[in-house]
From TrEMBL:
Membrane topology, record value: Multi-pass membrane protein
Keywords: Acyltransferase, Membrane, Transferase, Transmembrane, Transmembrane helix
Subcellular location: Membrane
GO cellular component, one term: membrane
Protein name from the UniProt record: Palmitoyltransferase
Species this protein is from: Tigriopus californicus
Recorded domain comment: The DHHC domain is required for palmitoyltransferase activity.
Coiled coil location: none
InterPro entries in alphabetical order: Palmitoyltrfase_DHHC, PFA4/ZDH16/20/ERF2-like
TM spans (from-to): 20-42, 48-69, 161-181, 217-246
EC number in record: 2.3.1.225
Family per record: Belongs to the DHHC palmitoyltransferase family.
Catalysed conversion reaction: L-cysteinyl-[protein] + hexadecanoyl-CoA = S-hexadecanoyl-L-cysteinyl-[protein] + CoA
GO molecular function terms listed in the Swiss-Prot or TrEMBL record: protein-cysteine S-palmitoyltransferase activity
């Protein structure tokens, strides 16, 4: 097996990438702020609905913060790569025992090497189910997709917060849409020919012809974009739950991941966890509590680390800091 040293390749900061990384989050914040403002200003006496709206807004913001604080980025370990190291006498013994004795072998070398792949962009050895994101310029474990509107990648470690965010964003958008639609009914009858005024391009043309007011165009814009946001959140929620349920993402192959690739699990890594077990990998124990409060006193998916790439020889069979000249020699080592 050959391993190459390469310089990390990063995507250049072009104007298109800069717009993709800044415009969608700003649009998201603006849309949420306007819908919230109109909802609170148009219902000054409905205290119950105002509390519901504030609760939904709090859940959205809190889960967005938790989404950012729990990114699925693969961190860099300061330790040696456990599958192999340089073939030099000073490195043939594990540092875990002060270099006095070899580290005890736990698994076969072929199994160990099968769990890792190389990322030339990050210059790392990363777990098998890791993918590199050109926008974040980092390796993400079990990458689902890069969310432009939240400004970060959706991976194994923050998928639960993304799904909860989508749920409350869909509810908040629906509540804001109901409020804006109800306000528009005082000016345009939605069950007559005036229903065309509820479509933004038509309203813009009417505004340019002095047939519609400026505030009406703003309301229609919020209505149209809010409906798109609501449908998009529902779609991402369904797709995200389905991906978590079956245990694979769009970035992974159509085949079901092999058992040795699913090493970050809540049970024995040698056993199949099933569909409900895959949801447990994403949400952790008592994961349904995330839909009530964004912070729960239970552990989520364990952290994932990568290792700096190093040079080795084709005939090296090295595991846990111990070097062997052939794979046959491993059969005589303690396990």
């Amino acid at each position: 097996m050959r391993f190459r040293l390469g310089r990390p390749r990063r995507r250049s900061g072009s104007l298109g990438n800069l717009l993709l990384e800044t415009v969608p989050p700003l649009f998201h914040v603006t849309l949420t702020s306007l819908l919230t403002y109109l909802f609170l200003s148009l219902r000054p006496d409905d205290h119950y609905l105002r509390l519901v709206g504030l609760f939904l807004l709090f859940q959205m913001l809190a889960n967005w913060v938790m989404f950012w604080l729990n990114q699925a980025t693969v961190s860099v370990s300061p330790k040696n790569f456990p599958a192999y190291i340089h073939r030099y006498p000073s490195l043939t013994h594990s540092r875990a025992h002060g270099g006095e004795q070899p580290t005890e072998l736990h698994v076969a070398p072929e199994f160990e090497r099968h769990l890792w792949r190389e990322c030339e962009s990050c210059d790392l050895h990363v777990p098998k189910r890791t993918h590199h994101c050109g926008h974040c310029r980092r390796c993400i474990f079990v990458l689902d997709h890069h969310c432009y509107f939240l400004g970060a990648c959706v991976g194994r470690h923050n998928l639960r917060f993304f799904l909860v965010f989508c749920w409350y964003a869909a509810l908040g958008s629906a509540l804001g849409l109901f409020n804006v639609f109800e306000a528009l009914t005082f000016y345009r009858d939605p069950y007559s020919r005036e229903a065309a005024y509820y479509v933004l391009p038509y309203t813009v043309v009417m505004y340019l012809m002095d047939q519609a007011a400026a505030f009406e165009m703003l309301y229609v814009a919020l209505l149209n974009f809010g409906a798109g946001a609501c449908l998009a959140c529902l779609y991402l929620l369904v797709v995200g739950f389905y991906s978590a349920y079956i245990g694979k993402t769009p970035h992974e192959s159509g085949k079901r991941p092999k058992p040795e690739q699913l090493i970050y699990r809540w049970d024995d890594p040698e056993l199949e966890v099933g569909c409900w077990g895959h949801l447990g990998e994403v949400f952790g124990p008592y994961g349904w509590l995330h839909f009530l409060v964004p912070i729960v006193p239970f552990e989520g998916p364990p952290p994932v680390v990568g290792y700096r790439r190093i040079i080795t020889y084709n005939n090296d069979y090295i595991l846990d800091g111990t070097v062997f000249t052939s794979e046959v020699d491993l059969d005589f080592q303690p396990s």
